[in-house]
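User: Second chain of the day. Same drill as before.
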Amino acid sequence: MSGVVSKPLQQAATPKLKVYVITEDDPLYVIRFFGVFFAELPSDRIEIVGMTISRAFHESILSTARRVHRFYGTVDFLRLLVRWFRAKVSGRRISAIARASGVRLFSTSSVNEPDFVAHVRNLSVDVVVSVAAPEVFKRDLLSAPRLGCINIHSGRLPEYRGMMPTFWQLLAGERHATVTIHEMAERLDAGGVISTLEFPLRDRDSLDRVIVGTKEAGGRLMIDTLLRFDARTGERPIARQFSLAGGSYHRFPDPASVRRFRERGHRML
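Assistant: Same format as last time:
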């Protein structure tokens, strides 16, 4: 009888989930998502194969400044501007966090351009993640990753589709802001819900606190959600579909809505 003991067969390593991230250049709030996301990302299971960072609202800085000034009012706009300059001077930007994590950055004039879509396909991306992406994804981009595109939205769907969901939930007197990760479809915020979490709201709250809190909590929720995708089998988490008839689409808040927001006792900053 041979004294040689055979070694157990080694199981093939589970392939990493290949993820591509599309976001906007926001050094104040969206960056809080990525501070958590990259710090806690399990690199042995998820690989960020590329990232594209576009201008906020996909418009000029001057246009964004006008939009923000109209929303916040002069005093809070100036306070926010000071924060923005401090962030710029410090060099703490989403691009810097990504590079420090070894992520390659790719620029494009539009994520819907054929060359960019081909780029995503060539990387054999499993999942495209949208975090405040300033463009509507068209059909070709939506079909480029093997397991689909997902988006994080700081509002309950379908009730708070559209822009600034944290603002609208505070204005409506909700007890929680619902952070939602959902499949992406050709219509905005219309894809099935994959995962959610509730962020407690106060009777007299600040939009600043809620945005920061939901962004940071959203970074962890995104990691948990991506871990439910299986790169080996192609299995995706089950999404809860919903009817758009039960919700509404919210646009960027106008001055009258901001006045009602302040009358409820809430602050912007």
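Residues 83 and 89 are 10 Å apart (CA to CA).

User: Great, on to the next one.
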